[in-house]
Amino acid sequence: MKKTRCFICQRQCLIDEGRLGFCQTRKNIAGKIVSLLYGKITGIQIDPIEKKPFYHFKPGSLVATIGSFGCNFRCKQCLNYQTTWGANLQLLKNLPKISPKQIAQEITASGYAGIAFSYNEPVLWVEFAADIATQFKIQNSKFKNKKRFAVFVTNGSWTKKTIDMLSAIDAANIDLKGFSEKTYKKMGALPRLPAGKAGLFGKIPQMAVYAQKKKIFLEMTTLLIPTINDNWDELKKMTNFIVQHLGPNTPWHLSEFDPNLAPDKEFQKLPFTPIENLQKAFEIGRSQGLNHVYVWAPQNRFFISDTLCPKCKNTVIKRDGWTPTEIFINQNSTCRFCGYKLNVIL
After folding, report:
1. Which residue in 269, 218, 284 sits closest to 77, CA to CA?
2. Among residues 122, 251, 267, 287, which one has the fewest Cβ atoms lying within 10 Å of its Cβ?
3. Is residue 26 part of a domain?
4. 301 near 278, Cβ under 8 Å?
5. What integer pLDDT is reported at residue 198 of this predicted model?
6. Residue 7 domain-assigned (yes or no)
7. What is the pTM of this model?
8. Residue 92's pLDDT is what?
9. How far is CA 36 from CA 42, 87, 120, in A?
């Protein structure tokens, strides 16, 4: 039987003919890797783009968020484990197929200017996502004075080949779970690596740099989990990497861990992220040179969500929760107070 390697994510599974890869969504059929997710979605949800989270890309927009099944990680804190911890193959089989054009037309008819690919790892269904985004943008002429856009919410395990397929994707939020192989393993993100194969974390930062070079606007997110990834030295390395390789104006979102939402029994015993840990991580990001660090902690009612101009320190986006209430940015992305060129796309 012919083995074929899948190059869609950094696992690069070598799959026997007729068998599935680790994600359970890509199959070797007659020596060709085929996505079982093409045409299959779990639904479309309308969200503020800030919820993804994107604070610097199209602030105030509502986006049609599309999800499917499966993931190449098995994170113990996953919010969407019902659909990400391996695809439900029977459910997939029973789902009706929908074409990229049908999805694009439906969202266009509803009046939304943006699509987000989220809920499960969109890298796994890159062919379908790329076709949806392309079809969506083809209908741009139906939107007066609005440019259509598409964004990814991803764990960042994509490859150069995958990124090259995503010319219709404008922005991505990458979930940086930590900054070491050890931390990723503690989360259960990287089990069952092929024999003799090095871990996957080391390529995630590299691919973030490559995505940015391919003109994908980036924001980064870290869910701060007590005893799991709240290592201050590691967070210094992470934020230093962002500053040095992605730029000091790259947004970094810190969010609070809620043990009630974790599927793993051991993670359910962990506490909510203490405010002092979030404050410490915030200070680390700022001390390493990041100009935009945000904190989302609803359990503790602790939020840092306004966007300040790095030059004049005036608030250029005032937010109430996820909702921008005031924006003091010119259409050319400059600060209205001092003219500084902001890393914000309106």
Report:
1. 269
2. 287
3. no
4. no
5. 53
6. no
7. 0.94
8. 77
9. 13, 9, 14
Q: What phi and psi, each to the nearest 5 degrees, are found at residue 154?
A: -135, 160
Q: In whole angstroms, what is the distance from residue 119 CA to residue 209 CA?
A: 23
Q: 136, 107 in Cβ contact below 8 A?
A: yes
Residue 83, pLDDT score: 84
Query: What is the span of the domain harbouring residue 64?
Result: 40-305
Whether residue 258 is found in the same domain as residue 324? no
The one-letter amino acid at 227:
T
Q: Phi and psi dihedrals of 131, rounded to 5?
A: -70, -40
| Phi, psi values for residue 294, rounded to 5° | -120, 150
Q: In terms of domains, do 215 and 326 share one?
A: no
User: 181-194 as b/e, with b when 16 or more CB fall inside 10 Å?
Assistant: bebbebbbbbeeee
CA distance linking residue 304 with residue 318, whole number of Å: 11
pLDDT along the chain (346 residues), means of 10: 90 93 93 95 95 97 94 92 76 87 94 94 96 91 76 96 97 96 87 55 93 98 98 98 98 97 95 97 98 95 96 98 96 97 98
CA distance 71 to 82: 11
Q: What local confidence, expressed as pLDDT, does residue 194 receive?
A: 52
Decide if 138 contacts 104 (C-beta within 8 A).
Answer: yes
